[in-house]
Amino acid sequence: MSAKAEEDLMAWLRNAHAMEEQAVTMLEALARRTGDYPEVKARIERHLGETQRQAEALEECVKRRGGDTSTLKDMAGKIIAFGQGMSGMFVDDEIVKGAMASYTFEHMEIAAYRVLIAAAESVGDAQTKSVCERILKEELSMASDLEASLPDLTRKYLSRQGS
Ligand code: MG
Ligand code: FE
Fold first, then answer.
1. At the topology level of CATH, where does 3-162 sit?
2. Percent of the chain with pLDDT over 90
3. Closest-lying ligand to the alpha carbon of 135?
4. How high is the pLDDT of residue 129?
5. What spatial distance separates the first Cα and last Cα of the chain, rounded to whole Å?
6. In this structure, which ligand is nearest to the CA of 47?
7. CA distance linking residue 148 with residue 10, whole number of Å
8. For residue 87, is pLDDT > 60?
9. 150: CA distance to ligand 1 center in Å?
10. What would the DSSP string read from start to end of 2-63?
């Protein structure tokens, strides 16, 4: 495979790392606002832990492939600022919007890891491929749990508004 493929893989790993840093910020914001929904809060907190480990695993992939990890921090810093801005969208019907945003975000992550898995395979990087496959499973599971909780969350939110 070409040097361009290796470059692309590196760029996508960096983007995924930044995406996970952003996910940490968003999940922290969401966890703070889900106190009235303990099951959802617990699931978000579990995924928060997974997400922190995902960011670390991606940093290891970048390092192992010979990439510079100092710029990783700068980029993550910028995206965290963006994530904090986005957490403002949880303000009024916060919990419902937050759950929708989170569900959407998981699907962006799923797409990113499907791309990374194919790219890692193309350049013959079995370790990166296996890391991304493990992360993909966590994203699919979170997406599926969020999907399952959306109707109940909505009903609880609406009944709280009425009381
Ligand atoms: Mg993730
Ligand atoms: Fe995720």
1. Ferritin (1.20.1260)
2. 74
3. 1
4. 98
5. 62
6. 2
7. 34
8. no
9. 19
10. -HHHHHHHHHHHHHHHHHHHHHHHHHHHHHHT-TT-HHHHHHHHHHHHHHHHHHHHHHHHHH
The pLDDT assigned to 162 comes to 73
Q: Dump pLDDT digits (tens) for 51-77.
A: 999 999 999 999 999 998 887 866 666
DSSP-assigned states of every residue in 58-78 = HHHHHHHTT--SHHHHHHHHH
Please give the single-letter amino acid code of residue 58. L
Report yes or no: 128 and 13 within 8 Å, Cβ to Cβ: yes
SS3 state of residue 124: coil
Say what the pLDDT of residue 71 is: 78
Determine the distance separating the centroid of ligand 2 and the alpha carbon of 163, expressed in angstroms. 33
Q: Whose structure tokens read 């959407």?
A: 104
Is the pLDDT at 79 greater than 80? The verdict is: no
Q: Which residue has tokens 């040097």?
A: 3
The pair of three-digit structure tokens given for residue 103, joined into one six-digit string: 């569900």
